[in-house]
Amino acid sequence: MSGEEEPYWIGRNPTEQQRLNRQHFIWTKCISYLIHPSIKSNLSQDAKIADIGTGTGIWLNEVSKVSPPTYTFTGFDNSSAQFLSPEELSPNVKLQIGDFMKPFPEELHGTFDLVNIRLIVVTMTGGRGVWERTLKNVLTLLKPGGFIQWIEGNFFGSRGYRKSGGLTPYSSSLTQGQLQMNNTFIRRFDWNFPASWTQLYTSAGLTHVFEDLVSTDRVPEQRREITELGIGAVFGALSNLAATAKAKEMEGKDGTWPEEEVQRVRGLAVQEMEAGVYYRWDIHVTVGRKPAVDNGVAQKGDTKE
């Protein structure tokens, strides 16, 4: 079964929409900015900004509130199921269907000053090269001299950690659930994560490459909220995997947990969270710039920052 057949394992429903919106604010507090300062200072007053894998559109909507009204924002996702309603969106924000796994229409090429990508890791299945192909597709949207910002969580290193200042009686079920999801995705869909973000960017011809690495536990008061979000994502994905395996009469044949096991371990994970155990993973924010070249001549602003 290919990742293309099953692109978003966490699910699309009102509960997930709420989780995504909540996740936005928590991740933003961890990172401490919406747009990296090195990009923000270089945007023009009529900047066009795109968001890839926009989900609900919450990132675009929040950026629009702190940006000049002359900016325009476009969000792309392969499903409109979780889009915020038009009434909830700022007037200069629009959301539309667009699949980053496929080439974007030629009429969109060279349109945007900034392309943001955020948290598409769960869909990045299909083996080595999927990140490179996605980046190639997305870069067609940028104007010469335009910027890309990619925000991604490395869930391959996600584990449950006990709180400081004392021993908790257990810390294994959070980790067990994460590893089960990871290993199932790897086995079934050849899931992977870039070994080097800077190399990924430079190999694509980007300049001004910079990686900002932060941890989800850098704001201690958010650790429980991060863990609640993680439990929702991990065990939501495991439940969807269990349902698909059962429907295809593959339950128990490919290492997928049945729903009963998912709920049993989830209950233990919640108990761990109540005892102070928390999920922790790394957040990679990688920025780069498309070469600003017109007939071989560097355009204004293409200088090293």
Account of the protein in words:
Pfam families: Methyltransf_25. This is Methyltransferase domain-containing protein. It comes from Delitschia confertaspora ATCC 74209. InterPro entries: Methyltransf_25, SAM-dependent_MTases_sf. The model is unreliable at about 1-10 and about 295-305 (pLDDT under 50). This protein is of the alpha/beta class and about 300 residues long. It has helices at about 15-30, 35-40, 60-65, 130-140, 175-190, 195-205, 225-245, 260-275; strands at about 50, 70-75, 95, 110-120, 140-160, 205-215, 280-290, 295, 295-300. The chain starts with 13 loop residues before the first helix and ends in a 7-residue tail after the last strand. The chain has 8 helices and 9 strands. Strands 3-2-1-4-5-7-6 form a 7-stranded mixed sheet, sandwiched between helices. A two-stranded antiparallel sheet has the order 8-9.
Features:
8 helices, disordered N terminus, globular, seven-stranded mixed β-sheet, 22% strand, single chain, alpha/beta, two-stranded antiparallel sheet
Summarize the structure.
This is Methyltransferase domain-containing protein. The protein is α/β, with parallel strands linked by helices and 305 residues long.
Shape: globular
List low-pLDDT spans.
Answer: 1-8, 294-305
Strand content: 15-25%
Task: Provide mean pLDDT, rounded.
Answer: 88
Termini Cα gap: 45 Å
Number of strands: 9
Helix percent reads 25-40%
Summed up, the helix count is 8
Largest sheet: 7 strands, mixed
Category from helices, strands and their pairing: alpha/beta
Radius of gyration from the alpha-carbon trace, in angstroms: 20 Å
Order of helices and strands: HHEHEEEHEHHEHHEEE
The strand order across the widest sheet is 3-2-1-4-5-7-6
Organism: Delitschia confertaspora ATCC 74209
Protein name: Methyltransferase domain-containing protein
InterPro entries: Methyltransf_25, SAM-dependent_MTases_sf
Pfam families: Methyltransf_25 (PF13649)
